[in-house]
């Protein structure tokens, strides 16, 4: 999808399930598996190539160990080689967002400082081997850049704090030539939360703050009709008003410029 002079390409690293609906969303009574895409966004233009998050990553893995992954092939099919990635922006540091960290030899990595402080304690690193294996070597090599607030990380690309899912969760605002798109991360992870932003997700660190952020962000995105790429929704779309809440409206043609 074109956003002014920039291009945003949603890429699917994996699709699978790691929980039932009731396990993921306590208010749900369904024991059906939650089948979920794990998305990455490629942003390119103005001489720079950016990834927002890096997906599930290669085997062996303890999380979704048997799920096939596709990001390297998807990148090549989109016309971008791994060594062409200049910047990786992490919405947060959960296991399904950092899986291919280290696979981009020329990239620097942007993380919110509150996420960094939360996820890199001794206890957290003991519980989260993916951080020890994927992220900490990048920090040791001086390739991790911490941000504390809304920050422009590249021309037309700005990170904006959207906390709750994790302490330092960020979304990414892309603006060029009067057009805009938001890469949302895990502010909203399922249609249940679009229909009712108060629906809790077990992986939210601060469920109350996550719900408050979710309601505010959905309101803003629906009001301004801004196109969205979300980590666990398919493709590009918009959140639009539906009565007292919202609904997800997939984009009809992702090859056309953003209005």
Describe what you observe in this structure.
- By secondary structure, the chain is of the alpha/beta class.
- Helices cover 23% and strands 31% of the residues.
- It has helices spanning 21-24, 71-77, 113-119, 122-127, 129-140, 191-195, 207-224; strands spanning 2-3, 6-16, 36-45, 48-52, 87-89, 108-112, 144-147, 151-154, 157-161, 170-176, 179-185, 228-230, 236-242, 245-250.
- The longest helix is centred in the C-terminal third of the chain and has 18 residues, at 207-224.
- The chain is globular, with a radius of gyration of 17 Å.
- The termini are close together.
- Residues 254-259 have low confidence and may be disordered.
Write the layout of secondary structure elements.
Layout: E1 2-3, E2 6-16, H1 21-24, E3 36-45, E4 48-52, H2 71-77, E5 87-89, E6 108-112, H3 113-119, H4 122-127, H5 129-140, E7 144-147, E8 151-154, E9 157-161, E10 170-176, E11 179-185, H6 191-195, H7 207-224, E12 228-230, E13 236-242, E14 245-250
Parallel strand pairs: 4-5, 5-6, 6-7, 11-12
Antiparallel strand pairs: 1-2, 2-3, 3-4, 8-9, 9-10, 10-11, 12-13, 13-14
Fraction of residues in β-strands: 25-35%
> What's the order of the H and E elements?
EEHEEHEEHHHEEEEEHHEEE
Unreliable spans are 254-259
Biggest sheet features: 7 strands, mixed
Compute the average pLDDT. 95
Strand order of the largest sheet: 1-2-3-4-5-6-7
Classification by helices and strands: alpha/beta
Silhouette? globular
Query: Termini separation (Å)?
Result: 11 Å
Q: What is Rg?
A: 17 Å
Instruction: Count every helix, treating DSSP H or I runs of 4 or more residues as helices.
Output: 7
The helicity comes to: 10-25%
Number of strands: 14
């Amino acid at each position: 999808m074109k956003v002014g002079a920039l291009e945003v390409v949603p890429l699917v690293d994996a699709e699978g399930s790691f929980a039932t609906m009731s396990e993921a969303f306590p208010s749900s009574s369904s024991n059906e598996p939650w089948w979920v895409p794990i998305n990455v966004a490629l942003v390119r233009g103005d001489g720079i190539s950016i990834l927002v998050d890096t997906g599930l990553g290669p085997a062996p893995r303890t999380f979704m160990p048997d799920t096939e992954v596709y990001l390297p092939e998807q990148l090549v099919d989109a016309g971008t080689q791994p060594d062409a990635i200049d910047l990786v922006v992490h919405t947060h540091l959960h296991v399904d967002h950092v899986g291919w960290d280290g696979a981009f030899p020329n990239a620097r990595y942007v993380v919110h400082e509150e996420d960094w402080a939360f996820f890199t304690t001794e206890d957290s690193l003991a519980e989260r081997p993916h951080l020890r294996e994927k992220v900490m070597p990048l920090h040791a090599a001086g390739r991790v850049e911490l941000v504390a607030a809304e920050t422009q990380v590249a021309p037309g690309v700005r990170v904006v704090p959207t906390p709750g899912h994790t302490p330092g969760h960020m979304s990414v605002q892309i603006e060029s030539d009067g057009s805009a798109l938001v890469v949302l991360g895990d502010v909203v992870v399922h249609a249940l939360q679009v229909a009712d932003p108060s629906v809790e997700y077990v992986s939210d660190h601060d469920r109350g703050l996550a719900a408050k952020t979710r309601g505010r962000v959905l309101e803003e995105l629906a009001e301004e009709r801004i196109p969205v790429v979300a980590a666990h929704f398919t493709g590009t779309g918009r959140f639009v008003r539906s009565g007292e809440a919202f609904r997800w409206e997939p984009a009809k043609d992702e090859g056309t410029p953003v209005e």
